[in-house]
Amino acid sequence: MRGLRLLIYFSFACATALQPSSSRRFILCRHGETNFNREGRIQGTLDTSFLTLSGVNQAVALGSYLLPFSTSIKNVYVSPMTRALQTLSIVKGVISGSGVDLPSERVVEDLREIELYTWQGRLKSDLELQFPEQWKAWKTDPEGFCLDGKSPLRDLWGRVETSWDVILNDGFESNDDYDDNDITLIICHGALGKCMIQNALGVRDFRNVEYALENCEAVEIKAGRWRRLHPVESEWK
């Protein structure tokens, strides 16, 4: 019975995915490498990690990549987490050095990373040893996975839909207000970013590594399609 309820819930969520209009371009980026990334720790919504030197350099490279697009960036949205804000600050600094100022960013609370509760701050290797069954469940069935009596991925999918709703409807009358070359820039996280891409495409498959984002990777989303931009460009999918 529980399986049937989950199937109905997830089917409904997929059917109501908020897909970006064909008239708009979105560049979505993950933050730079943090000390937690390097150490193999769970970050989630724990906001104590910070960019490493490598992460700073990744953000500088991302800013340099975005520089030719900078005059077309009309809106900027960012997670409230320090690692995302640091990344955006560096990107803005690189771009402003060329004489272009990006629009003021809007911090969207729901763009924060997936919340993994009591696992946050812990080494992944320790969790795998101490909680082998739970760790296996998280890796093999993330949609059905529960932690501390809560469903992290279900919560994340809900926040992804809310985030797209904010981004799609913020500060303009209709999608016709945007030129085809106008860009909305989004800086967020790995798990959330993967779900943002999938939601825009009407897909729901968290285990699919095709949508995984590396640190400071940038992808473009438009017209129900997506492609990788930086550091390696791919074909439209």
TrEMBL record:
Substrate binds at R30, H31, G32, E33, T34, N35, F36, N37, R83, K124. The keyword Lipid metabolism does not apply. Keywords: Signal. It comes from the Eukaryota. GO terms for molecular function: phosphatase activity. The active site is at H31, E113. InterPro entries: His_Pase_superF_clade-1, His_PPase_superfam, PG/BPGM_mutase_AS, PGM_Phosphatase. Residues 1-23 form the signal peptide. The keyword ATP-binding does not apply. This is Phosphoglycerate mutase.
